[in-house]
Amino acid sequence: MSYGSAEFPLIIYVLSPDCSWCTRNKNNVAALANGVVGKYRFLGLSLSSERLKEYVEKNEITFRVYSNLSYNILSSYKLGGTPQTIVVSSLGKVIKNWRGACTGELKEEVESYFGISLPGIPEG
Length: 124
Known about the structure:
Number of helices: 5
Distance between the termini: 37 Å
Helix content: 25-40%
Shape: globular
């Protein structure tokens, strides 16, 4: 990925259409994406392109989601599990890397870092 002289840092949300935790985490991701407008760029990376279009539509994802990632991207960002939230500086340095859905301590850490409130994970 090229970062050039980007004005804002980047948040990368890593997902997979078959990941039940990604689906359960969708409200948190939407709140995060909406809560950082004007401060961060936000994009999604899907580890699978199968059923991705349907997943994006069904979950009403409003940010761009890319798939068919190169080995270099997978390796550089240590991608493999989902969901995963990565913050990258405008110079391309990984600042934060959270693995898992926004529950418990992880939810609190993400909220504190970005200064926003997340809705949490629905029961069930």
